[in-house]
Write a structure and sequence with these properties.
Oligomer: heterodimer
Bound molecules: zinc ion
CATH topology of chain B: Amidase signature (AS) enzymes
Structural class of chain B: alpha/beta
CATH architecture of chain B: Alpha-Beta Complex
Number of helices of chain B: 15
Number of helices of chain A: 15
Strand content of chain B: 5-15%
Helix content of chain B: 25-40%
CATH superfamily of chain B: Amidase signature (AS) domain
Chain lengths: 475, 506
């Protein structure tokens, strides 16, 4: 039996505004507990929220970048529930009139473009954090995060595999970073994800029973939990069992989802319009202005790389997948004439090292100009390609100028003909057998001799000249 | 001279001329409070030290340009005052000292009014008699066996008993006007959005409005001048210019058209109240206004819609009192849910719990459309009734409450009967309109309130009408007698009091 998987994602993203959404407190991450708070975000008696216009602007910006319609009239609603991290015992959110709706994101699956619908984007406030002290029978509350603006982005149930979910999340993150409304740092909680997944027999229209998995901490966890859940649901059905609609928790260590069967999940949030805030009439001209000022988005940038730089589509896709990487690349090519060469270095050497060290582009120590300078040293024959790799690694680790590194390590390429002839003579003398082999027609022997030259010069010999000189001396 | 009896404008003149000092006036009020508040119980908290210190500062500064400077005021205990306990007459906030001022408090302080203390009220402003205070009931200065009305009963009683020069109240369904009516003083609920709600502890956010309770209409205009206006801390405050309301104090209503809604004179309205209000209409006619009977057909539904909307908002507004961050927390609890349950069970009184439950129910999934949404539709219809009437009439005249102040304990076992007390005032909140109550007669010894309702942000017209009526009558000059030891019975003689006005003189 073939099954089709149906997935929908709800992504919460913290916006990069300087102050909170309904008061003037700082949104800065970190800070001593309860230091970024005021009577308003603490929910003290009698205080009132006032909407941060920047947060609305960012939500509109996100809506536009996700191809949504922006509401002309939008309002806030109260979502009521008791929890110690929610000081007012209600969250100011949006219920039936979100800022944006009916958008989409395009992802590439097996070389084909798939369009994933965005149901809505709405603005709301974040809650605080509970801190459970080890070995103590109590919890502490940190309300620094309370009132930080969030947008919730709800997808249509258009996603058909864990892989697609992963691609969707990466694309979404990339878009939000491009438009600079969020840093999308999952480790700091500025991007959080809930998923809905169900399966149905192929060809059936009706959705299967859906399961919600809440608070996934990484894209990897999203993919793994969905893979697990897909398999689990199939097994339940194939064994003749029945799925129940429920919320499950992802156990990262055991790699399984676990049912969260408790009554607290059966919430009735009793939404109603927030009476402390007047409905928002979103001015057409304002929306148009935000739209006009949207930066280039990843898809457009990718296309430009292919067209203008002649990069392969795959390479262009990788380079534009994150704004930081793409910005770094663009900075490099503003200092160096050949985008293709830069692309190779960035994609192979730089990303290789980033992966190896588990680092982000933002943490790179050297500057794009330095990479350009290194490439020019290659062009001028100061260093060989092989040496350049060594220089690059050093530059990656120390952030020093390539010239300094080359000097410090004595890596300048030897292109002095006399010097090379002197070394070649020495190598020929010491390797008479290979010389004989070469003269007997074994071309491979020349390679060996070249290798010996390189060894002798610790790789600094100009390879082209080495070849020529050896051939000349060997007659 | 009993300077505690002064109005704002009288006190202002004397302060300006240095005939009295602010300290003298403040002391006189605390003396007055000490002599009568035992009987009235208007105050929850007194700040004698702070007030006297402030009065000395004001005297030193010698700048009495603003009419409120140096004038002692009482503030309802649901309006936050920095450093001064703000309890909402609830056990759950019994120990709550706000670290911030309400915008109202900021505005009074910036004009150097002297805050005497915080007045009693129905818990979280839920009630019509001030009997729902978690601490004690306030008594009506005209008859201490009767209620002062509510929920701003402490403020109204304090003004009537001359325990302050003026007071501030809040009005969600009549909580300024009804106690003002019961206590024979002037009380105004401004248009929704006219006065900032920042720092007013919310009961029902879409209905709550702060307003003055004063000894006469002139004072009302003076206080409104100080407290009205846009506040960036309150998104629902209106960005509409504030006129000088004292310019409306002209004894002239000639040519004005008055609507008298028949729905406010029907069943349940006391005959003497009806007569007094209709007499008031005659006073206006004598002054050159014309009165016509009109209909506001959705009036009867307003009360019931109010008892959906207000509790719904309250159920959410009061959810924050969970014992986690401030206020009182139950002592013994097993876990988080138990902490919530015990704190809220012990912290809230019966009426508050009743409204939280009503509101929670009305917002619950499956009931929302039938209750909350329908109530909002009723609200729109109520508003439309008024809009229609105001196309033709300059203001509307009706009773403030169906009866005069009732006996303490009379309605406590019958919430529905209690709710009926606000039947004449609630539609005004539902429509967001300005309304003022002022004395227009007596039933026995008890004052009767006349309500004047105006167009949105047309406080000037209702102030003008109220002022004209006040000038034409002497009801506002009659004072309750509370100094004698016999003050607890209904009928009382009190030689020290000024002569009671005999009604219409126009
Ligand atoms: Zn804050």
């Amino acid at each position: 039996m073939n099954y089709e998987t149906v997935i929908g994602l709800e992504v919460h993203v913290e916006l990069l505004t300087k102050s909170k959404v309904f008061c003037g407190c700082s949104t800065e991450f970190g800070g001593e507990p309860n230091t970024h708070c005021c009577p308003i975000c603490l929910g003290m008696p009698g205080v009132l929220p006032v909407t941060n216009k920047k947060a609305v602007e960012y939500a509109i910006k996100a809506g536009l970048a996700l191809n949504c319609e922006i509401a002309a009239y939008s309002k806030f609603d109260r979502k009521n529930y008791f929890y110690p991290d929610l000081p007012k015992a209600y969250q100011i959110s949006q219920y039936d009139l979100p800022i944006a709706r009916n958008g989409y994101i395009e992802i590439e699956v097996d070389g084909k473009t798939r369009r994933i619908g965005i149901t809505r984007v709405h603005l709301e406030e974040d809650a605080g954090k509970l801190i459970h002290e080890e070995g103590k029978n109590n919890s502490l509350v940190d309300l620094n995060r309370t009132g930080v603006p969030l947008i919730e982005i709800v997808s249509e149930p258009d996603i058909r595999s864990p892989e697609e979910a992963w691609l969707y999340l990466n694309k979404l993150k990339s878009i939000l970073q491009y438009i600079e409304v969020s840093d999308c740092k999952m480790e700091e909680g500025s991007l959080r994800c809930d998923v809905n997944i169900s399966i149905r027999r192929e060809g059936v229209d009706k959705f299967g029973t859906k399961v919600e998995i809440k608070n996934l901490g990484s894209f990897k966890a999203v993919r793994r939990s969905l893979e697990y859940e897909e398999k689990r649901q199939r097994e339940v059905i194939e064994e003749g069992g029945e799925l129940i609609q429920e919320t499950r928790r992802w156990d990262e260590v055991r790699g399984v989802t676990v049912s969260m069967r408790n009554k607290e999940e059966a919430h009735d949030y009793r939404y109603f319009p927030e009476p402390d805030l007047v409905p928002m009439v979103l001015d057409k001209d304002w929306i148009a202005e935000i739209k006009a000022n949207l930066p280039e988005l990843p898809d457009a940038r990718k296309e430009r790389y292919v067209k203008e730089f002649g990069l392969p589509a795959y390479d262009a896709g990788v380079l534009t997948s994150s704004k930081a990487l793409s910005d770094f690349y663009e900075e490099c090519i503003s200092h160096y004439h050949d985008p293709k060469v830069v692309s190779n270095w960035v994609m192979v050497e730089m990303m290789g090292l980033l992966n190896e060290k588990g680092m982000e582009v933002e943490q790179i120590k050297f500057k794009p100009e330095q990479l350009a300078a290194m490439l020019r040293m290659m062009d001028q024959g100061t260093i060989s390609g092989k040496i350049a790799k060594e220089v690059f690694r050093d530059m990656f680790e120390t952030g020093e100028d390539p010239e300094v590194i080359v000097k410090r390590k004595g890596l300048v390429q030897i292109s002095d003909e006399k010097e090379l002839e002197r070394i070649a003579t020495k190598v020929i003398e010491q390797n008479q057998k290979s010389v004989q082999d070469y003269k007997n027609g074994k071309q491979k022997a020349l390679g060996f001799l070249v290798g010996q030259m390189m060894k002798e010069t610790r790789g600094k010999a100009n390879p082209q000249m080495v070849n020529e000189i050896l051939k000349k001396l060997l007659g | 001279m009993e300077i505690y009896r002064l109005t704002i404008h009288e006190a202002h003149e004397l302060l300006k001329k240095r005939e009295i000092s602010c300290e003298e006036l403040t002391k006189a009020l605390f003396d007055r409070i000490k002599s009568v508040d035992e009987k009235i119980r208007a105050y929850i908290t007194l700040d004698e030290e702070g007030a006297l210190q402030k009065s000395r500062e004001v005297d030193k500064r010698k700048d009495f340009t603003n009419p409120l400077t140096g004038v002692p005021v009482a503030i309802k205990d649901n309006i936050c005052t920095e450093g001064l306990k703000t309890t909402c007459a609830s056990k759950i906030l019994e120990n709550f000292i706000p670290p911030y001022d309400a915008t109202l408090s900021v505005r009074l302080k910036s004009r150097d009014a002297v805050i005497l203390g915080k007045t009693n009220m129905d818990e979280f402003a839920m009630g019509s008699s001030t009997e729902n205070s978690a601490f004690f009931a306030t008594r009506n200065p005209w008859d201490t066996t009767r209620v002062p009305g509510g929920s701003s009963g402490g403020s109204a009683a304090a003004v009537a008993a001359d325990e302050c020069i003026f007071a501030i109240g809040s009005d969600t369904g009549g909580s300024i006007r009804q106690p003002a009516g019961y206590c024979g003083v002037v009380g105004m609920k401004p248009t929704y959005g006219r006065v900032s709600r920042y720092g007013l502890v919310a009961y029902a956010s879409s209905l709550d409005q702060i307003g003055p309770i004063t000894k006469d209409v002139t004072d009302c205009a003076m206080v409104l001048n100080a407290i009205a206006g846009r506040d960036i801390m309150d998104s629902t405050s209106a960005d509409i210019p504030v006129p000088d309301y004292t310019l409306s104090l002209k004894p002239d209503v000639s040519g004005m058209k008055i609507g008298i809604p028949r729905e406010y004179f029907g069943e349940g309205i006391d005959a003497e109240v009806r007569e007094a209000v209709l007499n008031a209409a005659k006073v206006f006619e004598k002054m050159g206004a014309s009165c016509e009977e009109i209909s506001l057909p959705h009036t009867e539904y307003a009360l019931w819609a109010y008892y959906i909307i207000a509790p719904a908002e309250a159920s959410s507004n009061l959810a924050r009192y969970d014992g986690i961050r401030y206020g009182v927390r139950a002592k013994d609890y097993e876990d988080l849910i138990d902490l919530y349950k015990k704190t809220r069970s012990e912290g809230f009184g019966a009426e508050v719990k009743r409204r939280i439950m009503l509101g929670t129910y009305a917002l619950s999934s499956g009931y929302y459309d039938a209750y909350y949404l329908k109530a909002q539709k009723v609200r729109t219809l109520v508003k439309r009734d008024f809009d229609q009437a105001f196309k033709k009439y300059d203001f509307i005249l009706c009773p403030t409450a169906p009866t005069v102040a009732f006996k303490i304990g009379e309605n406590t076992d019958d919430p529905l009967k209690m709710y009926m007390n606000d039947v004449c005032t609630i539609p005004v909140n539902m429509a967001g309109l300005p309304g003022i109550s002022l004395p227009c007669g007596f039933s026995g010894n008890m004052p009767i309130g006349l309500q004047i309702i105006g167009r949105p942000f047309d406080e000037p017209t209702i102030l003008q009408a109220a002022y004209a009526f006040e000038q034409a009558t002497e009801y506002h000059l009659k004072k309750p007698c509370i100094d004698s030891d016999t003050a607890s019975s209904g009928e009382q003689k009190c030689d020290k009091e000024p002569d009671a006005g005999k009604g219409v003189i126009a």
